[in-house]
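[Automated response] Your request has been received and processed.

Submitted sequence:
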Amino acid sequence: MPGQRAHERRNTLTTEPTTGRSVLVTGGNRGIGLAIARAFEANGDKVAITYRSGEVPAGLLGVKADVTDGESIDAAFKEVEAAHGPVEVLVANAGVTKDTLLLRMSEDDFTSVIDTNLTGAFRVIKRASKGMIRLKRGRVVLISSVVGLYGSPGQINYAASKAGLVGIARSLTRELGSRGITANVVAPGFINTEMTAVLPEDTQKEYLSSIPANRFAEPEEVANVVRWIASDEAGYISGAVIPVDGGLGMGH
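Generated structure:
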């Protein structure tokens, strides 16, 4: 009976585990990435992070990897899979900036940012998707930026890379949505990090004046949205762009 089949599908969804999953956060040893990793850790998941330099935060599995190097990514995934099993939740967070105005921007300034922020996301998603397809479930969360939707002078390279993540998520949704895999984008605005803390006071006031919430977000506010969009509660959401920007972008 159609009604019975629908009831069985609902029961299947509610019995999927929401904790204890293998989670990988790229660029997860500081800032927003670390807050995201901690949110999944608090949820009871097995959390690994990739990092290029610095220390591995306590309680997390750290694997050294460079998202611009396919062999490095493959080695990192093998290490995570051996410790935690196939990656069930991938958060593509690793990113760089090389800000300058268009006429001063070199081709390397442009392509190096694209290679890390956009092509790097492609590389880790492709590697993670193999395990997710076998499991017939998975969550991919791409960390974009309000800049990718709203634009920003001096950030043509960064904005292009972050806007491209939306196309990846929506195309991935169409390719793998029937396999129980979702792909969504979280687009933070101005966040209280080391980067914003060193801005001159006048610059901070200028930025705040454009944010309806009249404050910067805390990294944990982004992390909580990422954790939720990767949960079973959000299992029917895919290809979405969720702004966490205090109203700055207003749906751009």
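Summary generated for your ticket: The beta strands are 22-25, 46-51, 61-64, 89-92, 138-143, 181-188, 241-244. The radius of gyration is 18 Å.
If you did not submit this request, please reply to this message.
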